[in-house]
Automatic annotation (TrEMBL):
SUPFAM superfamilies, A to Z: Helical backbone' metal receptor (SSF53807)
Keyword Signal: yes
Pfam families: Peripla_BP_2 (PF01497)
Coiled-coil region list: none
Leader sequence residues: 1-24
Gene3D superfamilies reported for this sequence: Nitrogenase molybdenum iron protein domain
Domain Fe/B12 periplasmic-binding: 27-281
InterPro entries: ABC_Transporter_SBP, ABC_transptr_periplasmic_BD
Name of this protein: ABC transporter substrate-binding protein
Keyword Signal: yes
Length: 281
């Protein structure tokens, strides 16, 4: 009986060792900046051999962001790197690409796009399971839950809710309304989305006047390194200048990579809260 138990323990140990070695040998391709952040946070960054061009966080991921936009990845570019595992979500679902990868014996893990904290936690669980990083995954989820609880407590201290209008775009400006990733970020930060519509819409003078925001929020690329010229682009618009945001020259920015729900979203929400409501504390 003792020998049988010993053999059973040895078999379990060998199975565990084999799983560890198999996962350590994975050559991972990622599509989606938020997924790249998860994989690196779980400690599997060294196994990533390529990612889409938006995967520039964390800093060490920039060197492997050699593929195209998630909506336009080529099978040739991916296979040239010799991957064993492809991880993405269904935001830019490409059934043809996924089928080609499977035909080439590349394992594909296609996740449901995260539009809530619960979805994000499920993504982490599945990625951690695939990479045999379940303990790290549990720690990451616990950290996110702690951050979420801290934000909930902070929001209870708000005296006067602030309305913000999120604007972005290179040539013409777009506004982010309800049911968008930005809208969820604003909710996490205790900020009211001034845009009273769903989805994304082009900015018009009438829509800005109706929104009447207390402040503007944009992405870092719109202001970083542009100084006053970047701010003037917004406050030089007559309709914006007539709002409380324009009159008080209130504008802030968030990293463009954090406009999608990911592991850094809660940190970004806390920074927004501190910047917007710090004087109320």
């Amino acid at each position: 009986m003792k020998n049988l138990k010993l053999i059973g323990m040895l078999l379990i140990a060998w199975q565990f060792l084999f799983a560890q070695l198999a996962n350590a040998d994975e050559r991972i391709i990622i599509s989606g900046s938020h997924i790249t952040e998860i994989v690196f946070e779980l400690g599997a960054g060294e196994q990533v051999i390529g990612a889409d061009k938006t995967s520039t966080s964390p800093e060490q991921a920039k060197a492997i962001a050699v593929l195209g936009h998630p909506s336009n990845l080529s099978i040739e570019g991916i296979l040239s790197l010799g991957p064993t595992l492809f991880i993405s979500d269904d935001k830019y679902l490409n059934r043809k690409l996924n089928s080609q990868l499977e035909q080439a014996s590349v394992t594909t893990l296609i996740l449901k796009q995260a539009i809530s904290l619960a979805d994000l936690k499920q993504q982490i669980k599945l990625i951690a399971l695939a990479l045999d990083k379940k303990e790290q995954g549990a720690e990451l989820i616990a950290r996110l839950e702690k951050q979420s609880n801290e934000l909930t407590i902070l929001k209870q201290t708000i005296n006067t809710p602030q309305k913000a209008l999120f604007l972005f775009g290179k040539d013409s400006l777009l506004m982010a309304g309800e049911n968008t990733a930005v809208d969820r970020l604003l909710t996490m930060a205790g900020i009211v989305n001034a845009a009273g519509f769903k989805g994304m819409k082009p900015m018009t003078p009438e829509s800005v006047i109706i929104a009447n925001p207390d402040l503007l929020i944009t992405v870092d690329k719109a202001l970083a390194g542009k100084g006053q010229a970047g701010r003037d682009r917004f406050f030089g618009i007559t309709a914006i200048a007539a709002t409380p945001a324009g009159k008080n020259k209130r504008i802030t920015m968030i990293p463009i990579a954090h406009t999608n729900l990911g592991i850094n979203t809660l940190n970004t929400a806390k920074k927004l809260f501190t910047e917007v409501y710090g004087n109320q504390q």
